[in-house]
Design a protein that fits this description.
By secondary structure, the chain is mainly alpha-helical. It has 2 domains: about 50 residues, Homeodomain-like (Arc Repressor Mutant, subunit A, Orthogonal Bundle); about 170 residues, Tetracycline Repressor, domain 2 (Orthogonal Bundle), CATH 1.10.357. About 70% of the residues lie in helices and about 0% in strands. It has 13 helices and no strands. Helix 10 packs across helix 11. It is elongated and about 60 Å long.
């Protein structure tokens, strides 16, 4: 039992850190708080990470992997998931479901605290999105109109995603339409303006699989032990 607990300990610590930081913020959360929440000694945390900053970096990396896995699972389960509009809707769903990544995406100072000045949050989330190269691939697959400028379209999608994740500071969630209602309108507006009906949906899914694999390998190169 001790050995099993030791194996699971890093994940318990990261789970505790995620819960506390999203609730209290990075600045107000201490290593002692995290250890108490995880049910381990304070020294046990330092066996895995040298500082709160190192722990948070590992936490963000884990959550980014989870975000990408969630997005891919949603797309794979959707028969029309290979279209750009469906991928985009699923990406917004996945982002909304992950409080820490949503805070990073919007650079929420309440959650990130001084970490926002120590690290550029964009370096964690810049790969989570539909950049110019991905748009070009989707155009080649016949899923996006080729007359649209890829860079401008990628920029527009980023603007909408940022507004979608940060709108609660202006319009409270209780006063906003449901996510399903927003997705329905979003797909109607974007779909009619930029997508093609006879494109290869499976090619779109494959493009996302490759993109997720590239991101995961990049993170694995920085954190080869998975931390």
């Amino acid at each position: 039992m001790v050995r099993k607990n030791a194996v699971n300990r890093p994940e318990r610590i990261l789970d505790a850190a995620a819960s506390l930081i999203t609730r209290l913020g990075f600045d107000k959360t201490t290593i002692a708080d995290i250890a108490l929440e995880a049910g381990v000694a304070k020294g046990a945390v330092y066996l895995h990470w040298s500082s709160k900053e190192a722990l948070f970096d590992a936490l963000v990396t884990r959550e980014m992997r989870r975000l990408m896995a969630d997005l891919l699972a949603r797309v794979e389960a959707d028969p029309r998931g290979g279209s750009l509009t469906r991928m985009y809707a699923h990406s917004l769903q996945a982002l909304q479901a992950n409080p820490l990544m949503r805070a990073l995406y919007t650079q929420d100072s309440r959650v990130l605290g001084k970490f926002i000045h120590q690290q550029d949050p964009r370096r964690y989330v810049e790969r989570f999105g539909f950049g110019k190269d991905f748009i070009i691939y989707m155009q080649a697959a016949g899923l996006v109109r080729k007359d649209l400028n890829p860079e401008s379209l990628a920029y527009l999608l980023s603007v909408i995603a940022y507004g979608f994740t940060g709108i609660e500071s202006v319009i409270p969630a209780a006063e906003a339409p449901s996510l399903e209602q927003v997705e329905e309108v979003l797909e109607a507006v974007l779909g009619r303006g930029m997508t093609l009906e006879d494109g290869d949906s499976e090619a779109g899914k494959q493009a996302l699989r490759l993109a997720v694999d590239v991101v995961n390998r990049q993170y694995d190169a920085v954190h080869p032990d998975g931390a």
